[in-house]
Amino acid sequence: MKAVILNGAEKDDRDIDNISTIISSELSDSGFEVQSLDLHEMKIAYCLGCFECWTKTPGECRHNDDAREVVRQFIQSDLSVLLTPVTFGGYSSNLKKGLDRIICLISPFFMQINGETHHKKRYDSYPHIIGIGVLPEEDKESERIFTTLVSRNALNAHAPSHSAGVVLRNQESETIRENIRSLLDEIGVVQ
Amino acid sequence: MNQVKRILLLVGSAKQTISTSELIGTYLIERLQSNGYETETLFAHKLLKSNSWERLLSSTDRADIIVIAFPLFVDCLPYSVIKSLEQIAGHRQAKSELKEQTLVCLANCGFPEQHHNDTAIAICRQFAREAGFKWAGALSLGGGEAIGGQPLFKIKRTTKNVMKALDLTAEAIALGHPVPQEAIDSMAKPMVPKWIYLLMGGWGWKRRAKKNRVLKTILHRPYEG
Ligand SMILES: Cc1cc2nc3c(=O)[nH]c(=O)nc-3n(C[C@H](O)[C@H](O)[C@H](O)COP(=O)(O)O)c2cc1C
Predict the structure, then answer these.
(1) Cα B63 to chain centroid, rounded
(2) Taking all residues of chain B, what is their mean pLDDT, rounded to a whole number?
(3) Predicted pLDDT of residue B34
(4) Does the CA dihedral A82-A87-A89-A94 come out positive or negative?
């Protein structure tokens, strides 16, 4: 099984790098082959909103940049971990520059899920998603927004299952590890 | 003597043709212009491309009202807008004193149900809280592609509720009031029936693909492992 960690931290964010290492080791222990992408290092253009990745070069964005690696790793993994400093309840700009470019992975055509419109699948299978947000201190509203956002993304990205949670910068490594284990348990890919 | 009030519109769409965000944002600030406001428009993607964050920060500092008009991207704000908000929040959190400034957001999404915008609007509210803005509220529009780059007054039959929502919002915020519920409800009304929007949308993708000679491969999977 393959997992990719999309790390939306700023450069030199030691806390998040440490959390990323814990996630990697937990995933490896659970039998995943892990790839980590540090998005702050990647050259990724903003999405123009032109939809040519659906109507001109189907399945592929016109920009040939590092987003192609994000897209490839995302769709070829069994599990995608979205790791980010919680930013106003949502994702950091570093993570978002990668995520804005994954719409080439779905079909332009519409379907209904629970009476709501979404796009149909382009591929047969999509990764499970775990969202891990990092906060400096407890903030219930930010946490609520973050977990909702991850579940909305999971729905649009056809994730077979998902989980999301928040860890704190000053938490002991052992507590962070336990949180990550329970997020992994929740998605149910690990025996 | 009354000082001139300033309004800053930050557009979050990078479309190369005129976007729904720009059209609804411009309509709103033009209404405020006729109430004596001085207006300025910035595009988040242009600031990002030229790394012009100083420009954004000084325009934000000068403004009394900031309007952010954006398309929903992957259930939240586009990358360039988040980057702009990070810059503004960092700048304001380093200040010891902040004047009272109001934030209004205009969200539009592609799916016909406007509630897809809810999470993005919650993020804007949280940004207002963290960056010390007075939150005036947001308008949420579904099926945003129905505007199709047309000035709102040119397609009145489609946009009458949108214009009403923006008129009511302009009136309210000029008086220092929050976005009224009546405006929120008016913006939430579908511009076209859902089934027509979806039918036209599906045809639209096919028409564009056909023009580009890729209709047969529209579901191509270049990343199949
Ligand atoms: C990268 C990308 C992601 C999008 N994600 C969503 C989404 O999650 N939900 C939705 O309803 N529409 C989504 N859309 C559609 C846009 O929100 C919609 O086309 C909008 O009307 C564009 O507004 P604009 O003209 O201001 O750019 C997405 C579009 C793009 C290009």
Answers:
(1) 17
(2) 97
(3) 87
(4) negative
Q: What are phi and psi of B146, to 5 degrees?
A: -65, -20
Give which of B70, B78, B197 is closest to A110, Cα–Cα. B197
- Interval between CA B109 and ligand 1 midpoint (Å): 5
Best A87, A102, A153 residue to mutate vs chain B (most B CBs within 10 Å): A87
Instruction: List the single residue in A58, A76, A145 with the smallest CB-CB distance to B123.
Output: A145
Nearest-angstrom CA–CA distance, A105 and A82: 17
pTM of the model: 0.98
Average pLDDT value for residue range B41-60: 98
Query: Burial of B218 by CB count in 10 Å (0-12 exposed, 13-18 middle, 19+ buried)?
Result: buried
Whether the predicted pLDDT of A65 surpasses 90:
yes
Q: Which string of DSSP letters, residue by residue, matches B85-107?
A: HHHHHHHHHT-S-----EEEEEE
Distance CA A44, CA A52 (A): 17
Domains: count for chain A: 1
Query: DSSP for A56-93?
Result: TSTTS-S--STHHHHHHHHHT-SEEEEEEE-BTTB--H
Tokens found for residue A16: 């998040």
Q: What range does the domain containing A121 cover?
A: 2-187
Closest by CA to B81, choosing from B62, B115, B107, is B107
List the CATH number of the domain containing A31: 3.40.50.360
The β-bridge relationship of strands B6-11 and A162-168 is: unpaired
- CA–chain centroid gap for A53, Å, is 20
List of residues 6+ apart from B90 with CB closer than 8 A = none
Closest residue (by CA) to atom 16 of ligand 1?
A: B110
CATH number 3.90.226.10 given to B6-191: no
Whole-number pLDDT of residue B1: 45
**What is the ipTM score, two decimals?**
0.98
